[in-house]
Amino acid sequence: MHRLLEGYQRFQTEVFPQKRQQFHLLAESQAPEYLFITCSDSRIVPDLILGTGPGDLFISRCIGNVVPVEDHSEMDGTTATIEYAVEALKVRHVILCGHSDCGALKAAIDRKNLENLPKARRWLQHVEAAFSHRQPLNPADGESAELASVIRGNVVAQLKNLREQPAVARALVHGRLSVHGWYYDILTGRIERYDETERKFLPLMG
Question: Which of 98, 139, 149, 173 could form a disulfide with 155 if both were Cys (CB 3.0 to 4.6 A apart)?
């Protein structure tokens, strides 16, 4: 806790005073342009990676960056967040971002470590489609190529689920929303985007 308290003290004395006007405006309302759906993994820090700040990203995090298939018998925070972001906040873009070395996909491949995690085991049912969408092996991924192909496949699978969310489907029809699938490599800091036309992952820039 000491480290967190030190950080908070720096925020109060150094950061907040410099951004006081911005925070005062944000205290009244928010109008983010982007919904960023990513994993709960502590190594993924969207604002650090993208150079964004308060008010820029509306963020949804869950293990495996999952978007559950619509099911009225089961409520979940992810689909509620998507609905609110699209319908109430009117975001223009939804970015679904997976990442290398994802523990959720590791667990989906080898379930022996889920014996004492019944809720996680149930949640990971939502990533089963990753295996049917796995991507070609990339030699640049080295020994992690098999895992990376499934992780990328999960991005494709969750993009499909995202498009099936009622709020997203309506916004896409009316041309007021774009959806994007990304893969972030922790080791290199690089991001790939899924190209719907070519049906493969390409560098985000260039």
Answer: 98
